[in-house]
Automatic annotation (TrEMBL), chains A, B, C, D:
Gene3D superfamilies: Homeodomain-like, Tetracycline Repressor, domain 2. InterPro entries: Homeodomain-like_sf (IPR009057), HTH-type_TetR-like_transc_reg (IPR050109), HTH_TetR (IPR001647), Tet_transcr_reg_TetR-rel_C_sf (IPR036271), Tscrpt_reg_YcdC_C (IPR013573). Keywords: DNA-binding. The keyword DNA-binding applies. Residues 46-65 bind DNA. It comes from the Bacteria. This is TetR/AcrR family transcriptional regulator. Residues 23-83 form the HTH tetR-type domain.
Length: 214, 214, 214, 214
DNA sequence: CATGAATGAGAATTCATTCAT
DNA sequence: CATGAATGAATTCTCATTCAT
């Protein structure tokens, strides 16, 4: 898992017929774009900044992605896939409770190691997802579908208490996402001296642990 | 409570020394601004749009709020207060578990009746809160502080299971926020035909119910 | 002399039919305008600033001077007269050399006690005097005319060496003006540690003293 | 000397790494800017005007100088150097009196052939030099320093009468500047029919001639 | 592949001025 | 006398995008 999560981070697959230089540049651009878009949102981001960060001229950048939106979309597409990865390892043959708790752990870790990616997606979603096309989501949807089915079957078999599967997943996403994005802000909300004794992980385990306790 | 939440919605209290016209226009402007900012974010929003929506000339709008940022800040400030309201009704003398569950309910309702406000705050927070000044947060902080103390005392008295107070609140915020913002997107993620049997409220009650069960 | 130079400084004569309040406000406005216009030039000056400095509302200021230009013109007019005053005391019956040197002294002193006024006039003149109407200058012209005649008569009588009268006056104006306006800048040009041993007055007396020496 | 004064007039040296087009456009822009700024001052000048005069689009102009102030500064910088040129030819080995008088002549000529440049500098200086940075002045300062030393040495050696060196230079600047800037205005002040028999040059030679006469 | 040059459409402000009260 | 409210025109500057080389 960690390999796929860490490595290609932002790139999308190399396309056929591309020079090595082209592949390299695409990657560099997407990486710079991730920085910029996640920090300032779609409108706040500027192509000039991305080009500078990537060490290319604006015109050259636009040779690779001919419009701002195209670049943004490419970025989203490459992220959406990665985003779904932790879910795939949910094992039908494992212990249900253990499997789900370990999914929570994996998801939390992913969010924390990829805060920019998380922020970007959250931001896009906040705007109502105007740049996410249906097809982009299709494969993700399939995974989700199969896993909600799995959870439902566990539930039906009485191996975990009854719980609405989609809501369970959604809540996990929201809570883990939260720890990537809201972190610094939460400190400000609560004040620097707020005494938070538990780690996010401990808390989440307690929360989902008691939900899934028989 | 609901009165304060519904009514002034976006405006802040009328200030001393303000003409009637001023009060009216300030309200209209803030309302239009809420629409625009929550839909497009700070950078994506345009003063021209807000002015048009408010039925004023750009110059006239700037007569009331002399810069885009001032308008945005005024909006945030007026929202932050409202945002903290549901927390205030957490009653030290009530039944702990019942009190907390009903806070969840109130918070969820607030989020759903004020999706624009929620989106705006979330957006701001995602960017790292560059427009939120310390003082804006102070009163909110005080409420939060007193309520985390209350929860801790309940926990210490064994009236609810041990749970980290700040984390509990944070999780409630994240989850309820989620139902305002991510709703449509979640539908898209899961597919239109996804069968979600429970309502958000049912799910949240189950989740926090089991966490707080003795 | 000093009375007329010091006192009305910027005001113009009170007009018939004006309330006391009106007279007072006119004066205050002109005074504030002098500050602003002399500091930033015609274009750089803003009516809002002047109004604020005068403690009036913009609209009220425009009640007195209905356009920016009118205010500026009124200011210039009131200054031009004052500006010519030192020349009037040039005494046909005194010692020519002594009279001229003492005119230099008076002019220098005026410039230094009224730097804002000097700067304003110089600025206007630099732009080619687009706001100075012929009539404004008429009375000044008459004085100058009579005094150049006087100087010429002294020169013709051999009481001072031959020197072109208009040029003499012009040079005095330019040099004294210079000491009001260019002062700080000259320090910067020469460096803070420049050792200037003479005062402007000493230098000017030496310069004109040797020119007028028999 | 005159070559350097006439030729690059407004531009500064072409920088390394500049395209031919860039060099050309920079020159054209600076030239148009000189017209506009010298005529209306910094605030009165408009980028749109300059662009029109240069035959470029506003946006294209801003491609070369990304802000109004940058353009203005570039202009000033290129002028300041030129401005100091006549002083450099002051020859330690020549006849002191003759050298100084010929400096006056050179300076006067420069001022008259470059009235826009003179007006611009004078204007800037009148505002207190808010756009002149210390470094811009450094080289100029060095020249001035070496020349005041020279004059002082002449004075100490008794080859010219005692005169305060900085004051001497300052007076020359003020008087010559005056003939560029105040010319038309002086005509108006004195009236069209004023009989000015001497030329500026004659007058200045008389003035400084008598000051420097042994 | 890459880039310098150019641009049009808009962005936020500023500001003198007008109008009704 | 005085002012709050309103505005239109202009101004500086930004930015994604295009074009020619």
């Amino acid at each position: 898992m960690s390999a796929r999560i860490q490595e290609p981070r932002s790139g999308g697959e190399p396309r056929r017929g591309e020079t090595l230089i082209q592949q390299r540049n695409r990657k560099i651009i997407l990486c710079a774009a991730l920085d910029e878009f996640s920090a300032h949102g779609f409108h706040g981001a500027s192509i000039a900044n991305i080009a500078r960060a990537a060490g290319l001229s604006k015109a050259n950048l636009l040779y690779y992605f001919s419009r701002k939106e195209e670049l943004y979309r490419a970025l989203l597409t490459s992220l959406i896939d990665t985003w779904g990865v932790p879910l795939t390892s949910l094992d039908p043959d494992g212990d249900p409770r253990e499997e789900l708790l370990s999914y929570v752990r994996r998801k939390l870790q992913q969010t924390r190691t990829m805060p920019r990616e998380s922020r970007l997606l959250a931001n896009e979603i906040l705007q109502g997802g105007p740049h996410l096309e249906g097809e982009t989501l299709e494969s993700l949807r399939r995974i989700v579908q199969s896993k909600t089915d799995l959870i439902r079957s566990w539930s039906a078999a009485g191996r975990i208490p009854h719980v609405d599967a989609p809501h369970l997943l959604i809540s996990i996403w929201a809570l883990t996402q939260n720890y990537a994005d809201y972190d610094s802000q939460i400190r400000r909300l609560l004040g620097e001296e707020a005494d938070i004794s538990d780690t996010p992980q401990t808390f989440l385990e307690t929360l989902y642990g008691s939900l899934l306790a028989s």
